[in-house]
Amino acid sequence: MCGRYLIDDEAYADLLLILHDIQEMQNEVFPSNIAPVITQDGIVSIKWGFPHWKNKSLIINARAETAFEKNMFRKPLFQRRCAIPASGYFEWANTGESKKKDKFLLRQPSERVLYLAGMISTFKDPEGIEYSAFVILTTTANESVSPIHNRMPVIIAPDEKEQWIYDIEFAKHALSREGPQMQINHCVNSG
Fold first, then answer.
1. Degrees (nearest 5) of the Cα angle 67, 150, 28?
2. I need a labelling partner for 18 at 20 to 30 A (CA). Which of 34, 37, 82, 129 fits?
3. CA 71 to chain centre
4. Catalytic annotation, residues
5. Considering only CA atoms, which of 165, 172, 170 is closest in space to residue 67?
6. CATH (residue range 4-186)
7. What are the φ/ψ torsions at residue 53 (nearest 5 degrees)?
8. Over the stretch 138-150, which tens digit does the pLDDT of each residue have?
9. Are 179 and 145 in contact (CB under 8 A)?
10. CB 39 within 8 A of CB 46
11. CB–CB of 8/90 below 8 Å?
């Protein structure tokens, strides 16, 4: 699962090269935030989370293993894939005796910027106004992540962004492969 991700100051300078039209950027991105994504139309800012069909909650992740089977995800996965730039992502886990979960930041040590695999769909708000939203695709955690969580985002290498967005055969391959090794850092502030 990916419940929050990070665009830190160090990566922000790199991201400015591709995100030149984004004026305001928050560091920690929460579900329902507007965030930059790379699409077939270039860089756009859209909402993180598909509206849930039963209630007012948001669907923020989709399982890579079953996304092609689900009505909500099938068409966006075939037609509107996106790459979400991030410095890393957050997970929470019980690591001690306390019932309180600890917060961890996961980064790819070899990359200052990583790209989370996502997809976009269009919805209507209660007033009937159309808007786009994205979800992050997740896969089974590899051995570097599994000590704290059983899921991780599907991560696309920087030189694979265009293939992910435009090539469905590459996308199928990317969804079925093991994720890269991640570095896990305990966060002092666990909020």
1. 80
2. 129
3. 20
4. 2, 91
5. 172
6. 3.90.1680.10
7. -75, -15
8. 999 999 999 999 9
9. yes
10. no
11. no
